[in-house]
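Let us practice reading a record.
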Amino acid sequence: MTPGSPSTRWSAFVVLLAGAALAKPPAGGVFCATYPSAPECVGKQPSCAYCHVAPPQRNVFGASLEAKLVPGASRPLSDGDFSMALPAALKAVEALDADGDGVSNLVELQQGTHPADPGSKPVDRACQGSTNPQFSVCRYDLRYVYKKVLLDFCGASPTFTETKAFTAMTDDASRTAFLGTELDRCLQSEFWRGKNGQLWKVAHPKIRPLGSLKEGEDKGGVPLADYYDDYALFAYSQTDDHDAREVLTADFFVRRTTNPTRYTRVADLPLSQKVDRAHRAGNMTTAWTLTYFVMFTALPRNAASQMYRAYLGLDIAKQEGLYSVPNEPQDYDAKGVQAAECAACHATLDPLTYPFRNYNGISSAMYATRYIPNRLELGFSTLAPRITQTPEAGVIFGQRVNDLREWATVAANSDAFAISTTTDYWKLLLGHHPRPDENAEFVATWKRFKGEHQHRVQKLLHDIVKTEAYGAP
């Protein structure tokens, strides 16, 4: 089975409804079989926050559901009993309004809003006869899109002369073709791809720059690594006909030149990047990532969780993307993560982290930001009795991977990567996450990005511009 398929998306969704904190692997599959059209079942999974404040504490929806889950039966339920009982329990609470926001649980589940959060509910955005002398309100309007494209991608509104020429075009087909040409022109602009431009804005939360530690251009007070290399690889992967997955899978680097800004693939950057080619995994193994997210850590959970969040859109701290691995966490570094309040997340996080085992941060100047095959044995052998037993093989989306390059490949080919990338640009261009009423267009867009467009961002942007969500004033 492939990660992201309907039978595996929910394979390890942690549900803690049965009294003690227990992982219930069947829960996701049962939920999605019950509500196959639910937005949270299309290429992704809802977080445990649907039922929990934090495991094992239940929220109001989880509490109402638990009360209907074979009441009176001894706890914990077996997986089989749980699977049999869950559909009836879900049906039993459909008509209820757990969070008191005036919308039933069923409608919230169908619309992709949160049945335990009164601030999250479907909103009727239907037009109420609105008029505007300039644009066709609530309908896709090419004049509005023309102005918006130039603002969003070139950074300036069309001039009066340009607007007049566009309006004078005799048919929509001509205007649409011209819009496509203008979009491609703007995607070459400094506003879009230059230093601190729109692409860099998308990259900020992934790279998390810190000027005081910056090496190279714009050097900080304690220069440790040059994160402009990370921006360069990100921008390269998102432009022209390049494959966006290379931000995770590249075994090369990218050099940025200016006036105009261009991004050029190079085999090595010997002055700033130290990881050998055989162990590179795009921006997951740059000097900045290893410096800032691994630092002095033996088992760099922070690096794994940041990559999972930044490039796959899954925040383990918010109980998202949990695919519990049997017999985990092992707690090789003796941090106490087997405690009940920790294990639910660490059963996913720790196996995600193992492939980072041999990537060194800044614990030694001699070995800084390199791949060291026996890193834990060299520098951390006295940290905990079992630390050197930490494997390099790990698990992502329920699939075993032997090393970080395999981790990157599985991640880059997943639905989660396509959804996260599409969400990045949706938020940039529309100013918000996809809303329930935009979900159908959003799903069609990310699926085309992954399938037909083979992860080419330029084609994705053309698709977003064509959506009603983007083009209806």
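A brief commentary: Residues 7 and 115 are 24 Å apart (CA to CA).
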